[in-house]
Amino acid sequence: MELRLLEHPADVGIEINASSLKEAFEAAARGMMSIIVEDLPPEGTKTPTHLIRSIEVDGIDGENLLVNWLSEILYLYDAEKLITVRADITGFTATSLRAMLHLEQLDPAVHHPRLDVKAVTYHQIVAEAGETSARVRVFFDI
Amino acid sequence: MVSLLKKDEYRYLILRANRQGMRVDGLVYANDKLIRQIEKDLTIEQVINVATLPGIVKYSLAMPDAHQGYGFAIGGVAAMDAEKGVVSAGGVGFDINCGVRLLCAPFTAEQIHPKLEPLLNQLFQDIPSGTGRRGLLNLAKNQLDRVLERGAKWAVEAGYGTGADLSHIEESGCILGADPIRVSDHAKERGKGQLGTLGSGNHFLEVQVIDEIYDRAVATVFGLFKGNITVLIHTGSRGLGHQVCTDYLDVMMRAMPQYGIKVVDRQLACVPINSPEGKNYLSAMAAAANFAFANRQMITHWTRQAFERILGNGDLPLVYDVAHNIAKREEYVVNGQKRNLLVHRKGATRAFPPGHPALSPDYQQVGQPVLIPGSMGTYSYVLVGTELAMEETFGSTCHGAGRAKSRTAAKKEITADQLLKDLRQKGILVKGASKSGLTEEEPAAYKDVTEVVDVVHNAGIARKVARLVPIAVMKG
Fold first, then answer.
1. What is the DSSP string of B39-67?
2. Contacts of residue A40 in chain B, CB cutoff 8 Å?
3. Number of Cβ atoms within 10 Å of the Cβ of A4
4. What is the CA radius of gyration of chain A?
5. Within its chain, how far is the Cα of B425 from the centroid?
6. Model confidence at B94, in pLDDT bands (50, 70, 90)?
7. Is the pLDDT of residue B444 over 80?
8. Among residues 94-123 of chain A, which lie with CB inside 8 Å of chain B?
9. Which of B131, B186, B263 to probe by mutation at the A interface, max A CB count within 10 Å?
10. Of B365, B422, B403, B364, which is closest to residue B38 (Cα–Cα)?
């Protein structure tokens, strides 16, 4: 898996090349969180406040699904101050997914929030899969 | 390749012939230098894309601070026929009613200077800012619903400010037709702990000195005098508005096929204004806009308290409060005919002329104050609306400097410590919640606000009244 930060005049994007769309979606979740929180805790982090939550998301196609997936993770951060440190997608179709999110409660003494991501956009969005590879690209409104 | 037709020194036309599907021409306000900056990114392409939307009237417009956005360019204006046109959630943007308000303080620069640092510290302590910070209130659901219905009126009734403030806010701080039922639980959950917070990114609160007056008569009516202090507050509807836009982009995208609408960029998703989805969006948008008016009203209250505590006088009258991300139903004369339109302003400011019925009696004689924030180390401007803006730009003008560089490029150029040192040398104190957030907002990341303002002034779609220079900046 390879993640690259993308530039936009006002905002920031990420592009991910992975072996599957499922893997790329999982990486996109961490990619977005690493824009919001400086030095995002490693995937295996388990503090006493560690939570696991299952979520289900749907969409009319892959791009819509990607936006809805990341928007749900953003919602958990913005509304509940829960940082997704790891996302395990347990069920994945072209228009829906099920996932277990590993979450850490935001603690200003430990985590360093950097920027508010306002939203996930459709600007130049890509969610495409080949037989052995996949690519997603998504920009965030800052 | 798109060809731009230079109409005059400050206007560039993008003729319909440039692209199949354009329903109207594009019109970009810029001088020779700014048009070259605008051409560097996707702004022109986005102006063209907006020109393809159903029901668009006269022009797809871009202001001189325009830069690439999502779907719509930031600095874009598009008016749709109220009966046959569409509403686009992306045409308002994620930060619904992001806007600015200006207060004038009863102090001169000399009087405030010895207490500037404690004042900035007090403001920083009293007004929550930065990512991840919760507000000082945690509203119950029914209280939040009242905020969404009543906006700044709710805030004044709850003790944040005075009734006199309301007449100096666009729409008196409360857009009618707001319906909390049309706002999702997700949006309410994001918003309930964020009322009365500044946020991060380009949001700020600045203490400024009025260093130049261009129109003394109008400045006097606005309460602006050379050498006096002002406070400029820039923030919006926080997570609540962001979620409303996210929710309705999805709703519009799913509904478009039933109305036979296809868009060239998904971020332009739209539905007929009078469809159930369109009406629901406009009710939710109005609710989010009211949240933003209440947000700025509460921050105003805490600003006054901080002045009272540190300087012994918190009497800071509100000059004006304007939205720069909004869709409004307004009436215009187009080709000699009165038309009811829905004007999308995406990073653009309403700029109504003298005598407009929407203005407070205080400003009937001179026109609406137009507030144009610059970047951290540079000037901000106060302008006034003109009749020409009603004829040409649906009563709209620019909204700021407009970004020139990406956040990553800005960060590579300067460290936070160097930036703070440079600004201090220029006499500007800065306090920011995040160091890297600061460098991303460095002054060189923006266009020259003076050049932007000169274009709208010379083109006649707003007129310069006063220039403000920052002396203390609080960044989220």
1. TTSSHHHHHHHHTTSTTEEEEEEEEEEEE
2. none
3. 11
4. 14
5. 29
6. very high
7. no
8. 106, 108, 111-116, 118-123
9. B131
10. B403
- pLDDT given at position B201: 80
> Tokens at residue B435, please?
């160091």
- Banded pLDDT at B367 (limits 50, 70, 90): very high
The set of residues, in sequence order, having a beta carbon less than 8 Å from that of B74 and lying 6+ positions away, is A10, B65, B66, B67, B68, B93, B346, B347, B402, B403
pLDDT of residue B132: 67
Contacts with B93 from chain A: Cβ below 8 Å: 141
Please give the Cα distance from B65 to B63 (Å, whole number): 5
Least confident of A42-56, B114-128, B288-302: A42-56
- Report the distance separating Cα B410 and Cα B447, nearest Å: 13
Best of A80, A115, A140 to disrupt the B interface (most B CBs within 10 Å) is A115
DSSP string, B213-236: ES-HHHHHHHT--TTEEEEEEEE-
Q: Comparing C-alpha atoms, which of B301, B265, B226, B107 is closest to residue B469?
A: B226
- Mean pLDDT, to the nearest integer, of B327-342? 97
pLDDT of B402 > 80? The answer is no
Of B195-209, B219-233, B354-368, which gets the smallest average pLDDT? B195-209
Q: Is residue B144 predicted with pLDDT exceeding 90? A: yes
Give me the CATH number covering residue B11. Answer: 3.90.1860.10
Here the tokens at position B401 are 């400097």
Q: Are the Cβ atoms of A142 and B201 closer than 8 angstroms?
A: yes
Q: What local confidence, expressed as pLDDT, does residue B436 receive?
A: 67
Q: Please list, in sequence order, all residues whose beta carbon lies within 8 angstroms of the beta carbon of residue B183, skipping any fewer than 6 positions away.
A: B148, B240, B244, B284, B287, B288
CB of B399 closer than 8 Å to CB of B75: yes
DSSP state string for B101-142: EEEEEEEEHHHHGGGHHHHHHHHHHHS--STT---S----HH
Q: Return the CATH superfamily for domain A2-141.
A: Archease domain (3.55.10.10)
CB contact under 8 A, A36 and B131: yes
> How far apart, in whole angstroms, are the C-alpha atoms of residue B25 and residue B6?
13
| Boundaries of domain holding B269 | 5-475
CB-closest option in B71, B131, B246 to A71: B246
Question: What sign does the CA torsion over B236, B242, B248, B252 have?
Answer: positive
ipTM: 0.94
**Section B57-81 average pLDDT:** 97
| Interface residue A38 vs chain B (CB under 8 A) | yes
B461 band by pLDDT with thresholds 50, 70 and 90: very high
Nearest of B419, B446, B238, B443 to residue B325 by alpha carbon: B238
- Residue B144 phi/psi, 5-degree rounding, is -60, -40
